[in-house]
Amino acid sequence: MRGDITASELYQDQEFLTRIGLGIYDVEFGSNGNVGFEDVFKFSFVENEEEDPKLYRRKVYNLTGKYYTNELARILWARFHESQALLSEMEGCEISLKEAAQRWLQDHGHEFFKSWALRVTEVPFRMRNQAEPYLGFIDLVALRLAPMWRELLEAGFNLPNILFAMALELPKKNQGSKRERYTRLVARLSGHQIHGQEDMQKRIREIKQLARLLSRQVGHNVGSRAATIEYYRRLNLVAEIESAPVRAAELSMAA
Fold first, then answer.
1. Beta bridge partners of 45
2. First and final C-alpha spacing in the chain
């Protein structure tokens, strides 16, 4: 009769899934062994695993305990296998893929994620620890008095934080070019520090490269202020990726 078989029972019937040629991935059962409809988004039923849009995301998660976008996970998956082959050859013994992944992330992860973040055309993240951009009445008044703050306010920085950061930068107001002073200001607002002139020049080069990328994307010149803010927004994306907690319990189950 209708209702005799529940979706939860079908999800758990491996013989049924095998007979109809489906596989099941990323299924998380509750303590009672049941699966609720609210967990459907965690399921992927595919006849061929290559058709799974989250295939590499799932594979990398099983190794590292962290989720990445599938596009990024696909690149990481290849890097992990390259690292496994190289380490196994160097050490004269078979290195597990899990160990190779952990060692690769430790040795090369930061530079890889930074290079990726500054190379992709768009990242769907706002500034770390900043509110959604919203211009209130005080912000609008401030823009009438100081139009150069528009990019900062529209990026989500609030007026008190901008004024406080400017006050901290006041002793250095005559140090460096206008671009360098603005770069230091946005760095401070974003939680970063610039260590010396060599570091400053490196950041400015990276900002210019990002500005060219963004300009090609939108079809017109992107100003240095907007590019500087976007640069630090992307660096904070790297920080978010690297500081994401590992789900130890789930990782141990997947290992």
1. 24
2. 41
Separation between Cα atoms, residue 169 and residue 70, nearest integer Å: 41
Listed in sequence order, the DSSP H helices in 13-158 are 14-19, 55-64, 70-91, 97-117, 137-145, 150-154
253 — pLDDT class (breaks 50, 70, 90): very low
Taking the C-alpha atoms of residue 209 and residue 252, their distance in angstroms, rounded to an integer, is: 41
- In angstroms, the CA 10 to CA 191 distance is 50
What backbone phi and psi angles, to 5 degrees, belong to 25?
Answer: -130, 155
- pLDDT recorded at residue 250: 40
Q: Over the stretch 208-229, which tens digit does the pLDDT of each residue have?
A: 999 999 898 888 888 898 999 9
Q: Is the pTM here over 0.70, yes or no?
A: no
Strand partners, 24: 45
Confidence of residue 241 (pLDDT cuts 50, 70, 90): confident
Phi, psi (degrees; rounded to nearest 5) at 24: -130, 130
pLDDT at 254: 37
Rounded CA separation 116/144 (Å): 38
pLDDT at position 6 is: 59
> Phi-psi bin for 101: left (phi > 0), alpha (psi -120 to 50), beta?
alpha
DSSP symbol at 25: E
Tell me whether residue 206 is exposed, middle or buried, using C-beta atoms within 10 angstroms of its C-beta: 0 to 12, 13 to 18, 19 or more.
middle
Residue ranges per structural domain of the chain: 1-52, 137-233
**Residue for token digits 């190779």?**
100
Q: Name the residue type at position 34.
A: N
* CA-CA-CA-CA dihedral for 172, 175, 181, 187, to nearest 10: -60
Q: Which residue has the higher pLDDT, 37 or 116?
A: 116
Other beta carbons less than 10 A from residue 195's beta carbon: 8
